[in-house]
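Protocol step 4 of 6: record predicted structures for both targets in the notebook before any analysis. Target 1:
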Amino acid sequence: MLLAGGCTDKDAVQQPGAATEGVTTQAAVSAQETGEHPEITGLVWQEREQMQYAEGFTIDCYEGGYRLLTVCDGKQVLTVPEGEEIPQGLAENVIVLQQPVDQLYMLASASMDMFVAMDALDRIAYCGTQAEGWYIPEAKEAVENGSIKYAGKYSAPDYEMLLENGCRLAIENTMITHKPEVVDKLEELGIPVLIDYASYESHPMGRMEWIRFYGALCGCEDQAKEAFDQQVADAGNFENTGKTVAFFSISSNGVAVVRRSDDYVAEMIRLAGGEYILADMFGENHLSTENMQLEEFYAQAKDADYIVYNGTTSGEIHSMQELLEKSDLLQNFRAVKEGHAYAVSKNFYQSTMSLGTVIGDLHNMLTDAPEEELVFLEKLE
């Protein structure tokens, strides 16, 4: 059976155990490029669903409701409609899941919001984040009431719990590439592992479009597409305002943590009608951020029209005083002097299916809309 899907060099992926930087793999063959499609004995291929933005996966549809999902590291999942036969002769690395797909172990916390958005939270039985670590109300409540059980973080799963209750699939984030022994152990126990590469999508809509992957996985395709289309609509179509924006945080050791200019946050600023002021901040790895000495950050970003402090990593702030306590240099920033300093809330990272709303927030910031129109941004007074 052919592998479908593929990773561009920019979005190349790491296999478990690989080095953290400079790794390029092309594990999957792109059927879109070759004109071929994955052949499965006994099934009739219908079409490949077209993605608008996402590049990290493909969905091939077969008659009878079968779906073949391929991630850009070459891992494949075949979903089999309830009551239908499992095809013969599948490759050993193909994960086969009979619908309804449930008893999932969710460790890619940024994807939990997708299950909420398509009303499929009940498909998740376990997670790798305790209740106090969730900023998604539905996920927090589910862990608190036990409908989703905390089964250990990605590096230390509770294997006994997962085996006892019949976990069907572990959905990991890319951090698991640093713990290949965990992948090996899970698979040895009969629990297949799938890595979510949504974080490798440089376009914010590409990140959100991974909901269509999970919609196909769970048989919730219509709900997934509706949720995705709504966020595309919420993102709007904004003209360039000519305003510049710096998006950053300051770490505990006193360095500025900034987004790369090819990162999805920088792209959201552009989509909102702004210009990311660190336009030449490119990296040579898959990290979304880069560290800068504060003096260098000041030199490059002091004249930004707006600054946005990222509270998701270094703790929320809610006032100008809290911002200025981070560094004396900040008081000399143009945006601080003109009252154009904002902070993003902690739930930003987990609210994956609200990136269209965040883009709208950024546009409202750039056009000085009333503060009550902001959802994820807070103006610092």
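Target 2:
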Amino acid sequence: MRLTNLLVIVLVSVIMYGAIAMLLLTPFVLLQGWMAWLVKILLQWLNAVVRWVEQLPLASIDQLWIYPFEVFLFYVLICLGRHCVSSHRAKSLVACLCCSLFLLGGHAFMRFQDRPVQSLSFYNVRGCPAVHCVAVDGRSWLVYADSLPDEKRLHRVASRHWQRQRLLQPRAVTADYQDSTLCFRDRILSYSGRRVCMVNDDRWKYQSASQPLAVDYLYVCKGYNGRLHTLAALFSFSTIILDASLPSYQQDAFKEECLERGYHFIALSEKGSMRFLL
């Protein structure tokens, strides 16, 4: 809910009427030119008003979530309240109170459902491969496959989802990192008993191992130019996750290889973002 709406709606209405008038004045080139100039000035005012209001403190109210079923119940509650006032009947008052209790109970349940849970998330965001590690206390870590990730693109897509879950600002991890909860070393992420190997270059291409390293997820991103069976000789995994950053021809080749060799895989560009509860 933004303060800008109070001013923008008026200006937008005037601009729309001006645009219609500009179209009607098509046969009159001179008058149409004047009207076009007026519409241009109004658009400049609109942009200036939006920029000015956005700089004001408390100009917007964020993190206010209304679920779809609540919108329906709000309308039902308004109708019941109006009927209760006009009829002065006890049954109407009881129905109004029951609707209010149902609305409050449903909101509390949905907020409980949206609470932070221990999980690993892989996002369907092209050009920004990352693993989001979430803790039950609201802390989280964004472990990026690239050392210079496009954080703005990822935040633009997923930040509202994070706010809805009441997560704290995620900590960005772009290099080797370790604390009491998470470890990220040599592109292998360990979190809450799960391991993710992030493959975004050819460092594993010519390696060998006497015994495969056990990981849960093999996260294949743009930058790897080898075959999946080469990685299968180095890692024992349960699921291959194909990131949306992979070119379409490479995704098709990897999917075909997975089907041929019986690897379980998830293509984020097809399935969308995935979250695994821990």
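Step 5 preliminary note on target 2. Residues 5 and 270 are 37 Å apart (CA to CA). The chain has a mean pLDDT of 87.
Proceed to step 6 after PI sign-off.
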